[in-house]
Design goal:
The complex is a heterodimer. Chain A has 13 helices and no strands. Chain A is mainly alpha-helical. In chain A, α3 packs across α13 and α5 runs parallel beside α8. By secondary structure, chain B is mostly helical. Chain B has a single domain, classed as MetI-like (MetI-like fold). Classes of the chains: A mainly alpha, B mainly alpha. Chains A and B meet through α6, α7, α11 and α13 of A and α1, α6, α7, α10 and α11 of B.
Amino acid sequence: MKGESVGVPTAKFLLPPRYQEKLHLLAKSAKQIWKQFRKNRGGMVGLVTLVIFFTVAIFAPWLATHENPDSTSWASINPIYASPSLKFPFGTDYLGRDVYSLTLMGSRASLIVGVVASVISMVLGTLVGVFSGYYGKVADEILMRFTDFFLVIPWLPLMIVFVMLLGASFTNVIIVIGITSWPSTSRIVRAQVMSIKEHTFIERARCVGASDTRIVIKHILPNVVPLIFANTILLIANAIFSESFLAFFGLGDTQVISWGTMLEKAYNSGAFTSFAWWYIMAPGASILILIMAFYLIGDALDEILNPKLRRR
Amino acid sequence: MARDFRSYMARRLLYTLITIFLILTFNFLLFRVMPGDPFRIMVPKGADDLTREHYMDHYGLDEPLIVQYFIYLGQTLTGHLGVSISKFPGSDVESILGPYLDNTLILAGLGTVLSIFVGVFLGRETAWRRGKMADRIGSAFFLVFYCMPTFLFALVLLMLFAHYIPEWPIRGSYGDEYFDLDLPGKLWDRTIHTVLPLFALVIETIATFSIITRSSLIDVLTEEYMVTAVAKGLRGRQVLRGHAMPNAMLPVVTVVAMNVGWIVSGSIMIEIIFSYRGLGVLTYEAVMAQDYPLVQAIFMLETIAVLIANFLADLMLFRLDPRLKV
């Protein structure tokens, strides 16, 4: 045990032995995945990009050149629609605000929405998938019809209707994105649970008297987690897109600076007719690059964890 | 075989009808139960007592929910989709929708056909040249446009055209003097107004279909029966057309079927940006005006359109996949 504890030297002093073993196994499989992941060029490009984006989002207030970019008082100080210069790296907008600072601050909203909404749909999708895959029969039939029903409804109009009915606050946008994007996850989880369920170690666990709950938590979930993880990464890309679209549609929280609300303001303030390309490119390119980063990582993980089962 | 097809079709049709029924139920519950006060949603703001009375009678708002539900079902099935409350106050929704629906059908229909043909073509050509320069450049483009949000691409397109070709019409589904034109003139006017939205709409679906065609075809091309086909003396293109493509098409059709709903969603984004007067623009205006009955009707139409498209795709899949016939 001693020489093998990979990457978690402190853990063995803090944890009881059986968790030490668990942690050790987890670290070992993570290390294996990492070894394959490192060889995937697309995945690595995505990962590096993502680290940069997260760093920027965390340190945004210190990196921004204007402390409170979202204040209307800039109009009297800064020029309106100034093109990129040393003072304003991404130019200024229709109120004379610094687009560079706005873009940095906006990264926070996009990342928060992306991660939190995806966690919501991951939990929902996993619950539905595990339940219907494990219990099968009537439960499976009902849950899968339910899932199919949500898969059929065009999700963009569905999100629009939900946000309209609930009101366009930041929290509501996150919740709505979360509860509209779980069906694909539940399908993938269900398929995986159904194949794991047939293994002999599940039968053995049942023979020694393990309850369903115990089998699901101890034996099935650990085998599904890597797949869920890869799927969640892809969901984040979708959630970021959804947020930016809803904001552009006028269903975003106007109090929050996000790339979507920036684009909406650019569109409605005539940045197009004045050819203020920097005002569109800064949030636009950020959305595109971030989505691509998540997509590349998700795709690489998918390839490693799931070589047979192709997505879609 | 004919009987198989018929029973398969009957099953799919039944399934589609059940789903339509569920969607009607969902649509009813969504707008009646969720926010709490149906008056806020179904009756115009600041209406006098007489108008309120009229709407209450119309939707049966003072009846129990289950009665309201049957009133809703009855009205919807007889083509009464509710009364607009703020966008076109007092008008029947079904009388408003017509021209918008036509415009969207033109855009989404052309978009679907175009993206299938171009997408499959590009996917086939890149797969055939896999590893070469054309494939690498093509695949990079597919990736970028696959990840690019449709509305973002449309925004960039709009900006470039507005700046560099100001003569090009970028707004509306037809010009101001449309109704004074003769037929060829009308057609030309329509075409030139549709080109940009259509291009913006299909670029992402083309990328999606290219990616799936390419990967599916590459899988097939590495199978051993491909070697056999070459060994028996078929030339490259013959192998591609006769042996590889038919086998590679199945996953493609599945993905195309799943993406029909996406084209509906995509057209909403595109229409708003280019002020193309279809259901998407109407959705936007109805949401902005808080016109719930109108949104409810559009949402139902869009969902049912996707269902019908899925049903047609299923039938096509049956034709293509011999395994389903057993």
